[in-house]
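Morning!

This is the sequence you dropped in the shared folder:
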Amino acid sequence: MKSIFWPIVLVLLTYYSTFSQVNANNWEDIKKSGRGTVTIYWFPNDPYSYVDATGQLIGIEVEIMEGFQKYVKKHNNINLSIRWTRVERFVDVLTLMKNKTLSGAFGTAGFSFSEERRTFMKFSPSYMADIAVLVSTPDIPIVRSQDDLKKYLQGATALTAQGTLLEKELVQLGEENKIDFKIEYTGGSVELIKLLNSRTNSFGYLNLPVYLLNLDKGLTKLNRQNYLTKRYEGRGIGLPITSDWDFPINEYFASSEFKKNIEFIISRYINIDLYHFIETFTPENEVSLLNKEKDIQQLEIKFQQLEIKEKNQRQLFLVVIIMIATLLFLIIALLFRKQLRTNRQLLEQKDEIEAQSEEIASINNSLELTIRQRTQELENKNKALADYAFITAHKLRSPLSTILGLVNLMEEMTLKEEDKIIIQHMNQSAKNLDSIVHTIMDTVENTDPKQGSGTK
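The structure's back. C-alpha cells below.
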C-alpha cells in the first residue's frame, strides 16, 4: 500500500505546484512576452537523460532540449528558462504527460512512439530508431523454438520499467506462450543491465543502443534471445496533448542546426558506427545483428589482446626500470663505498702529513737550537781569536819598535860594509814584521763586534 501511496502523493504535489504557473507558459504567451519558463520532467535513463559522476545532468535528450533553448533565442528572440524536474519512475512521467493543464511541460524519458500514447500526449519528431532486444542472464540458454521459450523462461523473473512498451511486450510474451514468470519493476536500461549482470534466471527487454553500447564496452555477458527483437516507430521528446509547444519543437527538429548537430550529440553517448547500424537495422535482418555482435566481440577480443600486450609491455618496462634502478643503486653503492675508502685514505694521509709536519717542526726546532748553539760557539771562538790577535799584535809592537830603534841607531854608526848589509837586512825584516803587525791590528779593528772583536 505504501509503495502506491507515495508516488500518487508525489504526482499530486507536482500537479499542484505547477498548476498555477503552466497556464502562462504556453508557446503563444511566451512568444508575445519574449521570455518564459518550461518544466522538463526527466526520468534517469542512460543515455537519454541521467546524472554523471560529477553530478551534472547530461544525456542525448538533455542536449537536444538545450539546443532547442538556443534555437528559440536565435530565431524568435525568446529568453527561455528550463526547470529540470527529476521523476523517479517512468510511469510517473507518462502520468504527468496526461495532465492537460501542463501546457509548458516536456518529458524526457527516451519515449517510444505508439498509437496508444498518442491518444493522451504528443511527440517531437524521432531523433533515433527504437529497437528492443530480449536478453537474459547467461544461465538461461538461447531460445531456438517456442518450446525452448516456455522451457527456459518458465518460473524466471522478468525485469522492466513500469509503464513502458517493453513491459507490455513481456506481458504479451507470457500470455501468448502461456509462460508463467513474475515481473519485477526496475529503473532505466542501465539499471536493468546491472541487475541482470548480478542475478540468475532473469531476463528483460533492453534498448538495442544500450545493449550494443554495453557489449562494445565489455560491460555485459548476457545472452540475447535472437528471434524476439522488436522495432517501434522511433524515439522522441514527449509533450501533453494540449501543449502548443509542438509547433516550435517540430520546427527545431526540421532546422539545419538540428540536422547538423544531432549526430554529434548522439556520438557523445553512443558509438557513431553503432548509431548508423541501429538506424538501418530491421528485425527481419537478424543476421546483420549477429554479425555486428560478432564484430563487437572480436573487436573486444582485440582490445583485450591489446590491453594484455600493453600490460605486458608495461610490466616489461617496469622490469627494465627496476633493473636500471637496481644497477644505478649498485653503481651508487660502489661509488659510495669507493668514496668512503678514498675518504678513509685521505684521513690516513692527513694524519700522516700532520705527523710528518709535527716531526718536521720538531726537527726545525732542533736545528734552530743547534744553529743557535753553534753560532754562539763560533762567535765565542771568533771573539777569542780576535782578542788573541789583538793582544798578540800589541805585545809584538813594543819589542819590534825597540828592534827598529836599535837598527836605526846602528845604521848611524860607522861599521864595516859587511855589517851594514846585515843591519840593512835586519831593518828590512823588522819593517816587514811591523807591516804584518799593522795589518793584523787593522783587521782586528775592522772586525764586526758580533763576530767577536776585542776591546782596545
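Headline: The first strand starts at residue 35 and ends at 42.

More detail when I'm at my desk.
O.
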